[in-house]
Amino acid sequence: MSLQIVSPTGGIAPLLRAEGVSLEYGGTRATHDVSFDVYRGDRFVLLGPSGCGKSSLLKAAAGFIAPAAGSIAINGAPVRGPGPDRIVVFQEFDQLPPWKTVKENVMFPLLMTKRVSRHEAAERAMHWIGKVGLSGFEDAHPHTLSGGMKQRVAIARALAMQPEVLLMDEPFAALDALTRRKMQEELGRLWEELRFTLLFVTHSIEEALVVGNRILLLSPHPGQVRAELNSHQFDLASAGSLEFQAATQRIHGLLFGEAATAVAVSPAHAGDHAERAVKRSMDSGVRRNDGL
Questions:
Q1: Quick one: average pLDDT of 180-197?
Q2: Region (Disordered) spans which residues (predicted)?
Q3: How many Cβ atoms are within 10 Å of 86's Cβ, its own excluded?
């Protein structure tokens, strides 16, 4: 099995589209001219080193920050602020109001947006609490839960809203290795059952391969597109295989090696040049028959 550069999908409109997005903080550019499409049912991963702007891109998709240039759209409509069609699961464990029980936390956004009645919100909360494996903990408060359990509550709360896109900003980064693997398994199980659309941020190459079916590689600061890759052939079961290890090494090379040298060009042409550089890099990899 091999990693492949994604070809344009013809005739299918993306659910989420970012076009030429540049983000700035106080005059400092975080990303430059980033474009990508997320289709319904995708597990789309933004992967890059710390400081490349991947979390900023997710926040822009959520409507928390506005691009300095370019645009982001959901179902063809420009994103102008937060909305219930995009729900975020953050890395921090303190994203749950501590005075609310697990059930009340899951119900909270449903009631605040007045999407359903209190009775239906309670029923939906119990349904999703069960889906994430927390049945019996609905009356517990966050301070009594482990980090992994808190993240399950956050995921249940997000999915209960039935968003168009679930946005996850390094949600498992603060967990220990065993819990992180378990949460990756749980996320995969939920996706197999529900086929929701996921935009996922990570700086871990291994996690990107396990979680995503498509991966956007971003350069170090300011973040620019290095490549977009298909990765649907990998999962936790394949982690540790020779193909998985080769894919990990290949992505590392694209992020920091040959492609990184090739894209040292003027910002105005950085995006196009990076794409050509990555294609040359990938083509040479095929000729060498290095397993990718």
A1: 93
A2: 273-292
A3: 23
Q: pLDDT value at position 6?
A: 60
| CA pair distance 92, 283, nearest whole angstrom | 40
Measured CA distances, 176 to 96, 168, 173 (Å): 20, 18, 8
Q: What is the mean pLDDT of the chain?
A: 86
**Residue 19, CA distances (Å) to 8, 48, 177 in order:** 14, 19, 35
Calculate ∠ Cα 224-226-232, nearest 5°.
Answer: 125
Calculate helix-pair angle for 270-287, 242-256, nearest 10 degrees.
Answer: 140
Whether 256 contacts 269, CB under 8 Å: no
Angle at 57 between CA 158 and CA 5, to 5 degrees: 100
Q: What's the pTM?
A: 0.84
Percentage of the chain with pLDDT > 70? 85
Residue 274 has pLDDT above 60, yes or no: no
User: Which tokens belong to 103?
Assistant: 């059930």
